[in-house]
Input
Amino acid sequence: MSLLEVKNLKKIYRTRFGGQEVEALRDVSFEVEEGEFVAIMGESGSGKTTLLNILAALDKATAGRVILDGMDLSEISEKKIATFRRDNLGFVFQEFNLLDTFSIEDNIFLPLVLAGNDYKNMKDKLTPIAVKLGITDILGKYPYEVSGGQKQRAAVARALITDPKIILADEPTGALDSRSSDELLRLFGEVNAAGQTILMVTHSAKAASNASRVLFIRDGEVFHQIYRGQSTNALFYQKITETLTLLSQGGNR
Amino acid sequence: MRTMFYPRLAWDGLRKNRRLVFPYMLTCICMIAMFYILAFLASPEITDLLPIGTMTTAEIMTLGSYVIAVFSIIFLYYTNSFLIRRRAREFGLYNVLGMNKGNLARIMTFESLITSAVSLFLGLFLGIVLSKLAELGLMRIIGGTITYSLHIDMGCVVNTVLFYLAIFTVIWLSSIIRVSRSTAVSLLNSEKTGEKAPKANWLLGILGVMILVTAYYIAVTIKSPLEALILFFLAVIMVIVATYLLMISGSVLLCRMLQKNRKYYYEPNHFVSVSSLVYRMKRNGAGLASIAIISTMVLVMISSASCLWFGTKDVVNSLYPGDVNLTVRFYDRKLIDEDNLDAFRKVIDDFRIENRSETEMAFELPFIEAEGVAEGKTIDFGDFDESMMLTKIREVYFIPLSFYNEVTGHNITLNEGEALVSSSGTAVNYDHLELILNGNVKNYRIIDSIDKKFVSGINARDIIPKINLVVDDISAIAMFFENSQDDPTPMNLIWRYSFDVKQSSMSKTDYAERVADAIYDVMEKDPGTAGLYSVISEERESESVYLISSNGSLFFIGLMLSIVFIFATVLIIYYKQISEGYEDVGRFEIMRKVGMTREEIKKNINSQLLVVFFIPLAFAGMHLAFAFPMIGKLLAIFGLHNKGLFIFTTLISYVLFAAFYTMVYKVTSNVYYNIVSEAK
Output
């Protein structure tokens, strides 16, 4: 059984006044195996973010099912959904989403504190992660004192510290310069190599070329997918750009 | 068409920001109305309707309007700068879209014109309508002529308009300067300039605690009303400074200390609250301190003014125990003996029989009064420098035992050199007292203290603290004074005699006047008394008019100013909720994404808001509690000694205020939740 199964997902938005309907997701189905690093690509408005929000249980699908490790997201009660999210999912966002009222360390601790861990336990979990991500020196600083790359690494640490089943990343390199982007993608690769499942939504072919599989979404449907196979990052990058060109020309598979 | 462009933009700007602008205008309207009303009540048209003592009423009302004027300047300026900061983004956008600073200034000018005109018009309208109500209220409290026609005092209208136009002009200029000094980008980003983590400032925090403790110490340990009068303003200023220091840095300090305690801090319930509180308190420290201080002001004003008003009857009764109150002063010590007093009593009684009236004795007391400097167990009646000895000066009353026994119903005997004592300043807890005058000493052994009820009857106005001594024979003391220093003797021999007029053909005022004349008629013919006494005769009702009108005016002005201040407090709270709401939108979202439920977040934020908004109330309560003894002393100057009444009015004021505050909090927190949930 796959770690994550998405079956015939459909999402329709209604404008608040007047009944105009917008179909964000038409019919999305795919599976993610444990230990995979999947990138989802698509143009603005293709439904990427909607998909991610549903996967993150931040939004509810109109129809279809999301099953994570045998649990159906739509069957989890509203009360338990936050706990579920905290225990099973890790998030990395484009705009970091660090709380400016917390130090970097406290930001990383946030999900653990909410789960009721004590300080020593949290510190033990943080130390190896901080070393791996190279943020040991900035733990005592505040978000406004560190660079974007450092903020994003702190956000990754926050996602990793709960030991989640899957990490959902939404344009994680979107707000970073190219050096920090490379650095972050390298870290994603390492984390993935250590067995962490990652699902990343991105615009950037460069970012996607680090994944083991890329899904293309267009008009609310999975339009195409390609596997890395044995190809290097550079070769995979080329394949991705070719597919993107094809997509933008409106061709059919 | 083009000419209407800027007015229309200005109108749109106001309409879109009605959540901010509307309360601001409401405050302007309220202040203008209040200013007009007070100025109107001080105008001769109104004071003519009042009984005698109108001077005080007009003065108090004028003073009140000055208070409102000063408060308006500070408060409206402060609120407007808040509005400008909130709207900086909008102006930045206009700027980016191609408007230059001149265009922006034009929009702001039109906006100012609209708000000023509307505020002035509605404020005056409201003021004129309510001025009649206020007039009736004042007449009811003080007891003046009630008329039912509506006056408009043009002079007051003009003054109000000119004064507030000046304020609005200053505010308008300052906002234009503020906007013209900044760049488009800084305007766009001014709402979210990165905020540094607040540093705990130990120095300021400790300074705040020290100043507050000192101020409280002063307030609690004050002995005499005179001291209270002098130190009151010092204490007030210290409390204000300390409140600001504590709110701004003390609160951050406290949160930082909590954060240091890992066991406490890393708890789901404390983690987010404590760390956000640091920021909230830093941002809101000054605002919260203002709320606390204004609240304290309102509470002090309402509790003391209402106590003064409701206690006026007591004061009148203790100052004037009967309808007719005679105070006879003798200039020869021999005259204060019983035989001579009997002669006076006989004259008074003869007058009653002659006029076929019925009277009833209310109060009588012969006593010796002298001022001295108390130090330890000695009281020195020699010459002293008043300014040097201010806190040690005491008025000493020597009261004959026979009267004390008669009034209290006790049956005490005292030997020569023994005394009962009571004091309204420092407690006299020595076993004996030494009276000193020019090197002569007279010793008294203290047997017991004087019955409290008896004291309240004789020490009505209490500016200088009193020491009362009940002794077997006051002529011995008169002798001591006379032997030690003959000219002038530092003592007054006084006989107070009060009675109620139950039935008489003449009015009480006439009775009071003519009984004094009768005394002069008889006593001047007696060579033993001629020229050795003076008589003051006071009729209660006519004498108390002054007191009632001044206390009534104070009560009235207390109410009016409280309304204005409460209005201001509400507005500050409201704006705080709004700005907190906008600040929290982003945080709310992040916390949700990281795995907090809506309920958790709501509970969390709720508890933070509760702490933030109820700290001022707690502070106000604390200040009020510590100010209590000091204000009690100040009320004593007005002759009010009824502690129970003061405790009652203070408690009632606090409870009512707290209830009102909570209500305001509830209503405004809805605004907060609307903002936070609108974003999603």
Notes: The mean pLDDT of chain A is 86. Residues 178-193 of chain A form the longest helix (16 residues). The helical segments of chain A are 48-55, 78-88, 104-115, 119-133, 148-160, 178-193, 205-208, 233-248.
